[in-house]
Structure formats: C-alpha cells, structure tokens
Description:
The chain has five domains: about 1-70, no CATH class; about 75-130 and about 330-460, no CATH class; about 130-330, no CATH class; about 480-515 and about 735-870, no CATH class; about 530-720, no CATH class. The protein has 29 helices and 21 strands. The strands form two sheets. The protein has a six-stranded mixed barrel. It has a six-stranded mixed barrel with strand order 13-14-19-16-18-17. A hairpin with a 2-residue loop joins strand 6 and strand 7 (about 240-245). The model is unreliable at about 1-25, about 65-70 and about 465-475 (pLDDT under 50).
Amino acid sequence: MFLNDMLFRLRALFRRNAGDRELDDELRFHLERQTAKYVKSGMSEAEAARRARLEFGGLDQVKEECHEARGISFIETLLQDTRYAIRTLLRAPAFTACAVLTLALGIGANTAIFSVVNSVLLNPLGYPDPQELLAARQNEALANLADMQRQTHAFSSSGGVNINPMDFTGQGEPVRIHAAFVDAGLFPTLGVQPMLGRWISPDEDVKGGPRNAVVSYAFWRDFLGSDPHVLGKTIGLGGSSYAVIGVMPKDFTLPKELADVFLSLWVAYPEAAPERGVHFLHTYWRLKPGVTIQQAQAEITQADHRLAEAFPDTEKERGTVLVPLHESLVGDVRPALLVLFGAVGLVLLIACANFAMLLMARAVSRQRELMIRASLGARNSRLIRQRLTESTLLALVGGAAGLVVAKLGATVLLAMKPAALRHFGAIHMDARVFLFVFAVSLLTGLVFGLMPAWSSSRGDISEALRENARTATASRSPLRSFLVTAELALALILLAGAGLLIKGFLRLRSVDPGFNPSNVMTMYLQLPGTRYPKIPSQNVFRRELLARINAFPGVEAAMITDLPLAGNYVAHRVVVNGQPAPALGAEPMVQVLSVMGNYFGVMQTPLRAGRDFTPTDREGQPRVAIVNQAFVRQLLPGQDPIGTRINWARADDPNDWFTIVGVVGDVKHDGLNQPVDPAMYSPFSQNDEAWRKWMTLVIRTRVPAAALVEDVKKQVWSLDSQIPVSSIQSMDDLLAVSVAQERFNMLLLGMFAALAVALAGVGIYGMVAYRVNQRTHEIGVYIALGAQHRDVLRLVMKDGVKLALIGIGCGLAGAAALTRLMVSLLFEVKPTDPVTLIGVALLLAAVAMLACYIPARRALGIHPMTALRHE
Length: 871
C-alpha cells in the first residue's frame, strides 16, 4: 500500500509539472527502499542497486517524460529517446550483441546478393543511350551483316565481333591474348570513344588494309607500360606487326566477351571474312530515335527472307531475333539470381523473427519498469515510441554491421563467380546498395519492433507492480508461437530448395562424360598463319610435337584434338551416301573434330564397333571417319554404319567421301546437362581446312601432370619459340568449370539454407529456454510432487514440438508451391521430389527436437527448493 500511495503522489506531482528535484527525491526514496529489500534477500549491494534501477528505468527517463509534459519539441524528445535507448542497450550488452549479430547476418546476406543483382540486373550498361542497343540471339556471317545493313532503315548503325586467341610476341615468353576481330561499325554502334587515338575506319576495314590495332586499357597498362606515346608503335600479333592507333577507356568492355586487342576482321582473318556460311559474329544494332524494337524486328525478318531466297544453301531456315542488349546479357543468369535473392529474403525474415522474439523477451523483463512509467502518467504512444526507438536503433546498428558482412560475402561471391557472370565487373556497393541497407534496416526496426512494443505497453499496472508478481502468464505469447512456426516453415522452404539443387548437382556430376578425366593434362596452342599457311607445314609441326611428347618417360599417351567441353569444335552439314538428298540448307548438322594421335586411347572413350585410326590414315589415302553412337541413332537408324560413306553438304569435291571405319561412345562436348549431338572424328592429316590452326595438346600421364608442364613448353618452343602455350589445366578442372554455374547455385542456396536452419534452431531454443525460465516455480512444484524425468521433458518439450510440427507442415506446403520457380535450375529432379522433401523435413525436425531438448534437459536439474524461492 505504501508503494501505491507513493506512486499516486508521484503521478500528482507529474501532472502538476513538478520540479525535477522533488521528483528525484521521491524516486530515490523508493529506489533505496527497493535496494534494501534486495540486499536483505542475499544480493550484493551493487547488484541490488543495479536491479532496482533497471526495474524503474532510471531517474533520467522519468525526468525526460516530465520535460515532454512541459512542452519539449518532438525533435528534442526523439533525441532524448535515442540517448536513453543507447544507455539502455549498453546496460544489456548480451541482448544488444545477440540482436545486432542476428540482424547483421540477415541484412548482410541480403546486401551481398543485392549487390550482385544491382550490378548485373539493375545498373545501366556502360554505353551511351543503352536503351537503343539491341543484340542478335544467334551469330551471323559478315557478308549477311553487310546485306542487312543495306536492306534495313531502322538502325543508325550495326557491327559485329568475333573473339579469337592470338599470340603476342616481342616481350620475352610468347603470351596468348584475346583478339577481337571486328568490323568498322562496331565501335560507332557501341558509341564509346577511345581514350587515346581513334577507331578503325571503314577505309581500313578492307581486305589487304593496313594492319592497325586498337588495344584495351589493361593491355596498354600491362604490356605497353601505360606509354602515353604509344600511338604509331608496332606490336607483334599472330606473327605479324600491327600499328597501335587507339587505346580504349579503362572501364570499356565488349558486351559479352573480354578482349585485349581489336583488329579488322578483313585484315586479321581474311579467309573467313567473305564466307557467307561462316556464322561466327556476335552482332549489335543501334536503333534510330523513335524506332521501336518491333519495327526493327520486322525489317530484319524481311531481310532474312530475302537472304534465304538468294542463298538457300547457307541461309535457309535461319532467323535473326533481336533483343535489348541488357536482356541478352542477363537472360541466362536472371532466373538464378532472382531465386537466390528470394531465398536470401527468406533468411532475412527468419532473422527478423528472431529479432522480434528477442525484443519480446526483453519487453517482458522490463514490464515492471514500463508499468511504473505508465503509472507516472506516461502515455502508451510515448512508451511505444521509446521501444520503437530502441528497436530501430538496434536495426540500424545491425544494418551497419551487415555492410561488413556483405563486403566479406561479396568477396566470396566474386571468388565463386561462374562463367555466366564473367563479363560483369566487380561487385560494387554504390548509393543504391547503401539505400537498400538503410531501408531494410529501418523497416526491420519499425515493423518487427512494433508488435513487441505494443504488447509491452499494455498490461495491468497493479499486477506488474506487485512485489512478487509472476511472469509466467507472459510466457504463452501467441505472437511468439507464430514467429517460431514461421521461422521453421521458411527454413524448410530454403532447405527444400537447397536439397533439390544438391540432388540435381549430384546427378549432373554422375553423368558419364564419355571419357576418363583422371591424369589428363591439356594445353592450348595456335599456329601463326604467317608461318603455317598450308596444311602440310601444320601437320609437320603436329607430328613432330607428338613424337617428342610421347617419348617422355612419364607420358602414357598424347594426342592433338578439339577438346570436349571446351566448345571449340566445328559444325558441318553432311549428306549420307545412299540416302535421299535432303532439301538445300536442311541437311543434318554434325560436330566435326579433327584428331592426331591416339585420341580414343588418351580419352579412354570406348570403341563400340569397327577400328581406330591407324598411321596409314594420312594424306593421299582414302578419307576415313569415326562417328559416335548419336550419329548412328539419328542418321543411320537400323543400319550397319561401318563402310557407310558421308560427305560435307555442297563439298568442293563431291566424289571425295569419308568412309566410316568405327563407332565410339558418346562424348559430352557441349556440357554434362546437354544432349549429345551427332559427331564425327577425322584425322588432321586428311582435312582440307588450312584455317583450322588451333589445337589442344592432351597428355595422359603416369606421373603428376604439373611435373611435365615446363618440359612440354620447352619442346613446343624448341620447334617454334613464338608459339604461346596457354590454358594449361587438367581435364578434371575443365570438367569442374563446365558445372561451375550449377555449383555456384547449389553452394549459395545451401549456405542460405544452413544459416536459416541455424537461426530457426536458435529461435525455437530461445522460446523453450525462455518458457523454462518463466515456469521455474511451476516445474519445481511439479518435481516436488514426484514427477519423473520423462514427465518433465514432456511438459517442457510439448509446446516446442507442437510448433515444430506445425511449422514443418506449413513449410512442406510452401516448398511444394515455391520450388516450382526453380525448375530451370534443376537437372533431372522434379520440384516436388518426395524423397528430398521428406528428407529435409526429417532433418529440420531433428534440429527442432534438439533445440527443444537442450533447455528441457536443463529443466531436469531444477531443485524444488530453489524453484520455490524463484521470484
């Protein structure tokens, strides 16, 4: 009664705008009395004083509420709330650290992925007026591009580019670089001016034109020493000298490729430039102002029809599809990024649910303080605003910590970056990213702090002020139960997505590539056209190199070929002797790989029928070929392929046929997740393609491959010191690169799922532990009445297990619906795969049971006498 009388007096003082000194005296009187009671109960004086002050919120906050009643401005009050929130949070370091860490993980993961989404999907392209730029979905021939330019009027300019490896010499060891063979319209179409010098002009972009080169900023910096007087100087490329006429800006890159130098296609690759059927250019188009993409597409379609009528042998059934340049760049990665962004959003929701539960637990522990402040006349709106100030401050600090996590996460993402993202630069944290972090932090603090603040501002003052009030009534909060259930449901959705990706990836890696990658080393070589213009000189180099490499003690076998999974084979249309002639331009397309040496022995690809190549299959002898099983299935169904003759469609010599002498197993040339196309292998010595100067040296070793690299280089340079040896990698590494995108998706979603499960486990653990603490008196009575351990476990765990089962059930329903959005990312796995869904449900149930069991196990150690003295 004395306490209530005192509080009514204080309320009266407050309403009369009492002075600070009077208020301090009254509150100090009560604090001293409460401190004395705590000391009497066995506490130390320091601990008793600290607990009494925490219960009543300190003198300063009550004084600030008096100031508000006297007309202090909103801004000043907000500053007072902020100062008080800082003091309060500093007095509870464990709570503050847990809340900040929880939000830092959730906001940091979201920020890292948003940085990627921002860089890839949202940032504008680095070209003037990028909305006017279009790209063609398929490659085009240079002759076709010129015809289209003449026949259309919707475009202000257009251009094409093809990337080829080239050797750079003249500065020590020869180096392989990436050369962009371009037409004169490319740079005007992209609209980027050189940093130094000029572009290649139309007058120079002709057969026999001057050998001029525009170099990239990186090439100028790394190989030319950032020489400001570089214009006019010559560099050695592909065995020829080129004059440098321009240097591109630092931030310039081609839309889809990386290039070191830019050369005229007519000058650097005159063999391919006039060929109508060589569709090897990536083409880009700039719309005239006011022209729509639909109008441009209609003109291009008409041009396609005219080309098909004029050149049916090479252009029939071809169609050019134009898309916005940005769409062509991000189309392949957009689904994966959006799925990952959605997944990390679920992680943030789980972190926010944990944050809300921390605030609720904190509110219950401060209920007495808040009710006393309410009894002093503080309005509910003021109490709610104070709690929102604390939660928002915590969220903003968590967001700041999340920026650090995001920076580390962005570094990891760059290290994991798959080939599909290689043409995008570094992941930058620009103003949009900082605004995203601020908005997410602010919304998190306001939205997830509102409900705990509202709940804590309501209650029975007299009940809260009772000296021995039990807080067990607050332990059963519907909001807390909802948050735990939601956490588990969201975690299961993420687990299901990660499980599906893991299962799909494992199936992808179990696909038989058609060869044995173990103990196989590969190196890329390209013969300079100036020194090896004809087939005989090319074959002499290949034979001599193989003879030297095969003589090494640690080499089991070596060969030269177009490498599987590298994408550098040539495709040809073919005709089969004895079959009806297909329509012109509709002949079947096959992959054509030239080989020299023991190809099938080195790759350990099984021979299914017929024979392997022999030394007699060389120049001047009847041409032979070995085909894969897909060739037989699709082009020779029901026939004995051995002895069948095939030839190129529209061959220069229609009587010079290839005879099939063998059939080998299928090899995955385009990727493990791609179907096998018909393929044929023919000896390098019998091909008539002098322009096929590239090759991959493949060596199966009996010793560690790294020990042979320098010896192999020496043998290459002993034959020709100007040929660079590049792309040195094992076949295992090449196989890993081919599934890098799938591994990236799986690892990232798996990490998010693991984080979500950990947060959900912490959430349900915290809820059960909190309830154990609130029900200590009840549990002690239960034990004193003779309850067995299993009874106590059942009592403590039943609520947590019930919520876990509800959350898992809701999560299964959500996973069945949302994982359908991942269908494009899965390989031979259905989005509703029952084994995966059941497996992740059992895993999450085990985590939830463990999280419930740990605090329940601790409850078994409660001594009845200690429990009866609780509170």
